Fold this protein.
Amino acid sequence: MRAAAILLISNLLFLSEGLSVCSQPQPRLVCAEYFASDLVVEGSLVRTQTVYDKRERSYRVANIYTVRVSHIFRGDNEENVRIYESNDSGRADFDWIPGRKYILFLFRPPNHKLWELDGCGNSGPISAANAVLSELDKINLQASHGTIYGVVSKGRLDMRDSGVRVQAHGMTGRYAAITNMNGEFRIRVPAGTYAIVPVDASLAFQPYELSYSDPRHLQIQPGSCVQVQIMAHDKLP
């Protein structure tokens, strides 16, 4: 675990300011981000406020965007939302332009008044969001089941492990799948709480530090989906 943490920190140190540090696996599924968000809206940018460092007035710390909401996909009714975006590796990779419409997947950190978004997620200009809107239309809140999507990697993220049997343990039973050639698996389960348990006597498994969800405790809502990243290592003799 310690070695993995050191490797993760080393990788982050070499990332440029403009490159987002993304949770895994990627790409982010629309369904998974929808259910992980507190608010999903369409709206137009009406104001940008720049926040500067108190000691170094020339350094931009963050931007605060005010968006006038025109449609709500998920969450409570909001006329305007204010979004805080730090000037760091987690910021969005699209431009914020006054008057432009965006689709935004938002969350509010504990004890914060402003909304935030995942720079590696599906937020972006509505003009480029046809695929995202199509996926939102497919979400069925009346469904009795949900889906667990995941990736098993061996040693490092780009080394996907195929042929690994994965089980989802829950109150209603155990459900299984086998990772494909890309190390990916998908398990459809009834709504409830689950733990993902890879089954392989020769390997040890642990959640990746930047996994979108904790595979040891997954809450599946009706019609929802979640994403998990699992790291595999050879067991010591």
